[in-house]
Amino acid sequence: FFFSGRETKRMVRVVLLLPFFLPLLICCSAFSPNPMLSRVITRATTATTTAVSRSSRNTNFFALRMSSERKAGVSAPEELRDFVKAAASKLVVVDVRNPDASVEPGDQKSLAVAPLPSGDIRPQALHLIWDRESNGMPIPDVPKDTPIITHCGGGGRGQKAKDFLEKNGFTSVLNGGGPKETECWAEFGEK
């Protein structure tokens, strides 16, 4: 099911206030001398928790995520725009996504939106898979001062790749997030 605008606002309020009121409701139900009141509070708590968990499965509910709520380390669209402009043809985009669904099932969604670099597709990009087991990736064969933007599907492994490259001497690296960060992706996704 989908929520109307009014219902969505109501659910957002419930989700935002739930962490404050849920402990109070639980506490009141545990120490209430009135068993009827205790049951009512327990049922209300359960109903609220169930409603929130059901609504969180709704894609409209998660569409409320503000574009400014990027994962930690993902550069702002403006910073990426300036970086891409300054780097021009020297820019290298490092795509760390893994096309193997058995290893990274979450990457399949972003691969449907944005293909891996190959040939004429994304000519300034390299595909260097981030390996969670070794906590590393292949080192790109480019000078250490090359302007690089790392990305995965949404920014987590992109940040790990950025940190890894900096530890290995690369001096000009940003984390671009990935196709999920649509404002950021618009700045470098075609490169």
TrEMBL record:
Pfam families per the UniProt record, alphabetical: Rhodanese (PF00581)
UniProt domain Rhodanese: residue ranges: 87-182
SUPFAM superfamilies: Rhodanese/Cell cycle control phosphatase
CDD domains: RHOD
Record's protein name: Rhodanese domain-containing protein
